Amino acid sequence: MLGRLFTKTAVTAVVLSAALLGTDRVAQAVQITGAGSTFVYPIMLKWMQLYQKSHPDIKIDYEAIGSGAGISNLTNRTVNFCGSDAYMTNSQIAACGGHVLHLPEAAGPEVMSYNLPGVNQQLVFNGRLIADIYLGRVTQWNDPAIQKLNPGVKLPDLPILVAHRSDGSGTTFIFTGYLCKVSPDWAQQVGQATSVNWPVGRGGKGNPGVAALIEKTRGGLGYLEYAYAIQGHFSDGRKIPVAKLINKDGNAVAPSIPAVIAAQKAIVENLPADLRLPIIDPSGKDAYPISGFTYLIINQDLGYMSKEKALATVQFIHWILTQGQDYCKDLEYIRLGPAMQKQVLAELSKVRWNGQKLLKD
Prior knowledge:
The chain is of the alpha/beta class and 361 residues long. It has helices at residues 2-5, 41-54, 67-75, 90-95, 127-134, 144-149, 170-182, 184-189, 206-216, 226-231, 257-268, 307-321, 338-348, and strands at residues 9-12, 30-36, 58-64, 81-84, 100-114, 124-125, 161-165, 202-204, 220-225, 244-246, 252-253, 279-280, 290-299, 352-353, 356-357.
């Protein structure tokens, strides 16, 4: 079912009532476009479908082509907004003209998934072990390092077949950022990016590609977005297994909405002004260690598009950050907390069209 959600699809939706803005409602049909994150696509599809019901005069086309490609499209100004699970680097921002806004719209964890038929217990990993597996140092499922974290579990004598993303991915950006934090060797040898030179493993495109690699081989292991994994099944009907991860406080925590809310609370007081911050390895006994925000990214001045498109873009984003938040939980996303929402809306208020303010105070 989820595989179908991640295909390229154009869905119509329209702008919020102009009561929010200091201008008249858009008078004629206008099309705005977005592209990027596959992770956000299911909730984006829901937002657009709901929005269309009461605002039928503006079309929104969003293509789930990966965060890296979305950022490239924003840089080339072929889209009006970008969806990305990776915040832009300083060099990317400079290439985009130097003034972009990062607007978190939801949060979600990343999970370690595996294919070990006959192992029914939920496995436990820590960050150093995951890094050593992806560095090619731990290669067998019955390695003592894995057995130590999983006492009493009969682990098979099988090779670990590592899967990773082949496309430029915000999921990879968050995952490799976590590995950099927990493993100095990973930070030095591989680093953090939307696409890296993987020491070992096979690549799959998008979450469906990685899940397929995990499923088709006994002993498969890979990282997936929570919303994809938790609702997915292998072709034989088994639910996709996900591991518990040992967090900074030493507790084994299963991925869940409450665990990411705990992680979000732990970092919100230290948010930078531009909101570029991953939710990686935070303190807190209940905090899940690998998660991140998915961002809407737009230029601060939208003068490169028509005023109608600029207005439509800002209105739609405003709706996502306010009324749209109510639909996150249904699709296993984590909505913005009150403090985060306030900061994000303040950031959105900076949007201009040729210097003119679009949102009321």
